[in-house]
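Request: Show me your protein:
***
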Amino acid sequence: MTIETAEEIAGATAVRGTVAAGYEPVREEFAALLAAEPGLAAQVAARVDGRQVVDLWGGPGLAGDSLLGVFSSTKGIAFLAVALLVQDGALDLDREVRAYWPEFAAAGKAGVTVRELLGHRAGLIGVDDGFSPAELADDAAIAERLAAQRPYWRPGAAFGYHSLTVGALAGELVRRVSGAGLRDHYRSRLVEPHGVDFHLGVPDGELARVVDVLPPRPPAEPAEPIEPESIAGIAYNLQHPTQIELAALPNHPEFRAGGPASVGGFGSARGLAALYAAALELLTPETAAECAQPYSVGRDLVLDMERAYGLGFMVAVPYLGARAFGHDGAGGSMAFADPAAGLAFGYTRRRVPTPGGAGQDAARLATSVRTCARRLR
């Protein structure tokens, strides 16, 4: 357990790092956030037209190159890998998944297209008896079980956030098409050539840089419990008798080793921004537009709220920009690319917020960066 003293918290509110000329308001916004939330530890980074313009961090126990578990911000890795294969002509969004993965056709899924799979429309939010903790850390095991699973709704008829499964599904497509597992494919195509400090799992020799995520503070009013057999309960694996607290997943050794593509990414804000800067460099305007084109729009069956997804990515988020695509994480992280602004952004925080997901801190920082970039362009 990490115990922070008052002295440590007070001494950690200083902002560290650098901003390019004209981006000083981002430093001021970040300083205000650190001061307003005692104990907040966070990183923020941004690139504009490939140039690093923001690289800031602050808070107890966090350095600029610390690696944090970023929960669902991980999904951007798998979605970008698929987008590049589509761009290469190796994968067709409107072909059935079974054309690349024959076993997937079982249990009434023969007609599911790649686009529907990525758009959270396949109805494969979980499996009937839940995943074991070992399976949750192993994308190959998740993919094998999902291939045999019946959908929880008629594919294509509705959509719901595939919180713990869409990364494994997309990763299996990458493996079937490229011949390499997602982790190896990602490392060779993005991490190594573009210096992306954002990884599926913790790389060998890098454990010392990993910082534990901290649990959410108790809410003022407890939330209504989720029924294990409900759509949301299945999506969050609540029906399995052996439970791992989802907010603590990045702290478990098996997740750090396994690096599942839905929730098992570890990176710095620099690394998240670098991933999306690479996306802006590698994707054609047509492919980038495909990533950002709203496809599944409306009421999300799992989250029970209005959402919009493009090629897997979160889209139509006001502070991201109309042509932007990216993904947040339950721990409060956010990462995205905005081709119109040439902007790549990454934000991480150490304590899981209540409720989970990117909040006003991420929105304020992204808006500040965008405002500065627009003024300087």
Observations:
- The first strand starts at residue 16 and ends at 19.
